[in-house]
Amino acid sequence: MHEVISVGVVSLQDLFSDAYHFRLPYFQRAYAWQTAEIGRLLSDITGAMRANQGQRGYFLGKLMVAKKQGQPETALVDGHQRVMSLTLLFAVLRDLESDPVLQSKLNGFIRGKDVRLSPQDAMALSCERFVQTPGSTTVDPEDDFDALSETERNVIENRNYLRAELSSLEYTPEVRRALVTYLAERCCVIVASVEDEEEAWSFLRTEEETRVDFSKSDRAKFSLLSIVPPPERADCQKIWESCESILSANDMHALLGHLRTLKRRKSSGKPIEIDIAEAYTFNVAGAGRTFLEGTLKPAAERLAVLRRTSDRKDARKLPALSERLGWIDPQLWVPAALLWLERPRDQEETLLFFKRLERLVWMMKIAGFDPTKQHNRILQLLGEIERVPTVSQMRELDMTSTLRDMAISNLRSTSFDAKHYSGRVLRRISIALGQDPGPIDRSALTIEHVLPRGFAVKSGWRKHFPSARSVKDYSHRLGNLTLLSPEDNQKADTLEWETKRSILSRSPYVLSKRLAEAADWTPAQILGRTEELIGILFKDWDIKF
Question: How many domains does the chain have?
Fold first, then answer.
């Protein structure tokens, strides 16, 4: 093994410079970040910039690379997700910038003598066409979205998300320019570098293999119980295990985070177990047991009730409402639900609270609010639950015009079917019509595109959709989607309207039966049905449309 491993702190303006030409090995893991991760990255960096007027730095993690001294060629062994995401961010900022000088500077973070990041061969053309070339972040793929690889879809979705966020009123040109300066000069990474690529992979493999593979829940359990004074430890372990018996491991760990939120009422970068130990003074005799018995166990029992599967016979019942909340986000809303259920409540008031909480969480997801904005809204709601006497007076549960308009814009999107929540929205609309068809599942329930995404040149569909552009403009919209069994979906395939219509009419699913009432399937029908379905959803949520 070489004696030298170089470790240093590198600013982004130095990382995305001629000093480094990142190359992804062909076997590198896929780019897996989605809009939640890219949204959190943008929100956290912007928040750090505003919190200290950009004077303090912001740490973006560690990279493991193989690089010979004095040479730019760099094998990116660990850190792919961050380097690709930062490349997307710089590219979007470049294409939104009107100042040619600053635009050129931003393009310098993308390419110098060569592109700063060379992905695998299978991704190189897509990155060039839709990210790295100036102006390319405004260009959409001509191919069917479903035909793209998972990595390509994530790149396009994250790029589009960043463009939408950075084009919003919150990010004025002045804010974007301040963000560019902050990114370049104040944001940094730790780069661990060795000269031999095999050696770099060996370091990474050793680190992964020697790390104790506890679940997050187990790590928190061992950490907290180790702090409890020894005479109390056995009883505390029994209490903990009784909570584990009624919750999943994910829910058990998440519950600690919810209790931290309820206690701290702010975000924290510390590990959950450290915050819990500090907030509830675990090192004091009796405090750990008091927390476990008086706080954790009752909260676990309330969460277990919320997780019970609904029989769906009455959509107004609490289990049905909490179940639907879990479809769109399993954890975001839980602190508010736990706080509400701490005290005895009138049943009708509780049902109204959960119905409006469901509406709020779904609308924030559909509108594309980043995770930090969603979390902050829930934090504000916690204060209202304690202060405000009735649900109807809770302003944080109201629909603002901004939230409503952003949600409508995404529901009307020409690429609605590519959104991660599209199937759940169809299911939720169906429920509003009185039928729960169940989850989207390739073996039981599928999404059908009524206007096919591709069909023969002489197909009858050409009458109303004569060009590839017209097909692309309409085939992916909400109004063109319905639900069918896998068998019916396969039969329908690219059949013309009249034949496909008979399959829809025989379907057991209400969305398809209603759709089959249309005499023809035209652009106007698709646009009209999009508005109709939004109206059905909004009426069920008591939102003006």
Answer: 4
Q: Do 49 and 123 belong together in one domain?
A: yes
CA distances from 130 to 87, 137, 138, 475 (A): 12, 5, 8, 22
Query: 521 lies in which domain range?
Result: 412-540
Mark whether 342 and 371 lie in a shared domain.
Answer: yes
Position 312 in a domain: no
pLDDT tens readout for residues 372-431: 889 999 999 999 999 999 999 999 999 999 999 999 999 999 999 988 899 999 999 999
The string of DSSP letters for 432-465 reads: HTT------BTTTBEEEESS-SS--TT-GGGGT-
**Domain endpoint, select from 189, 210, 231:** 210
Query: b or e along 30-63 (b: 16 or more beta carbons within 10 Å of the residue's beta carbon)?
Result: ebebebbbbbebbbbbbebbeeeebeeebebeeb
Residue 436 CA: distances (Å) to CA of 386, 431, 445: 34, 5, 12
Domain boundary among 177, 210, 243: 210
> In angstroms, rounded to a whole number, what is the distance separating the alpha carbons of residues 339 and 201?
47
Taking only the tens place, the pLDDT of each residue in 115-156 is: 999 988 778 888 999 999 999 999 988 766 667 778 888 899
